[in-house]
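Sequence, structure tokens reproduced for absentees:
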Amino acid sequence: MAVAVVAPAVVAVAISAPVPAADDVGDRTAAYRSPVDLALVDGERAIVTANSAAGTVSLVERSTGRRRAELAVGKKPAAVAAAGGTRAVVTVAEAGDLVRLETAHGKLVETGRVHLGFEPRGLAVSPDGRLAYVAVSLDRRLAVVDLETGKVVASLEVGSIPRHVALAADGRRLAVSCAGKAEIMIVDTKPLQVASRHRLPGFNPGQPAFSADGTTVFFPWTYDGGSHPSRGNIRRGWVTGSRLGRLRIAATDAGPDAELTGLSLDVLGRAAGDVAAVAVAGNGRLVVAAGGPSAGDGDPGWGGRIRDAATDPAVAGAVSALAVEPLPSAQPADAAYVASHVFRLLELSAQRRIADVKSRLQRADPTSPESVELLTELSRLEQGRRTLRDRIAGSP
């Protein structure tokens, strides 16, 4: 199995040109669109990008890299998918909508909008372009939308904070990554039901992908080794690290006995940070999208190039200041120092998730199965937060 790691900036032209004015997408700057997903449409002659910071989608001519059109869709577009021919669909997280698009003749036209609920994110479209499967993150469910009628035709609870969705080539099986409990869910589409759940030793499972025959799911996640964040343990990968997961599922059985293995992407000197997604190329190779601070490692001119690329003087000034600002610590800026801050950020994330579970628990029926599940999840999150605090306190 060969793996290629690529930088996250996939369509530079979608960032460079000014954004057309639109009053309904909130504050944004012309220079920073932050494209977070893309889809090939019109026989792969054009690219549609979802631009998170700008609240827009862009249509890019693939052969020339020229931006042909841009359309405001709402705050925080999260994912985009082709829906057959010149059609596409995009999820808009803050608006809670799935937006249908037409891209013919170099134009972007909104043809319909379906409200799904709190924070729709991951998205996959059936091979015939008829159905869209959408992960509605804060509703803990997978929504199925008929793209011809614009109606929600089915819904399935899948787990805590589903964020990413992949569909097998034959349309029979879905893989859903859930951030709340770090799970990969395998879902049968006919009938719509959860086939299996697979817990991961860590957090932040990213965008999954199926092999061509639909018997293997690949996905990135952040491994949690549970070890003390000493310099030696960090270098050995025993604390946290980027992993590429492989879940082998039989053609007729996706049960809990499916084989789950992981490949470290933290090879010394060639580590890949912030792994977000994986795709299977036509030749069977895996392409992993990654970023992180390793981009400037060992390159003294990296900060200067970032500053020169900033079109906003305030941003350029901030980059210059950060490049020379000493770290506010009497300790050396070593791996343990970084780990302590990473664990603190993880603790803050856990606190937000605890607050969300407590809020849902207050609204739930105390005698319902949902209340029992929420109490179990709350206990697990509280234990995880205590563990993080112990790690922070134990950092040298």
Summary: The helical segments are 13-16, 231-236, 302-309, 313-324, 335-363, 369-394. The domain at 9-157 is CATH 2.130.10.10 (Methylamine Dehydrogenase; Chain H).
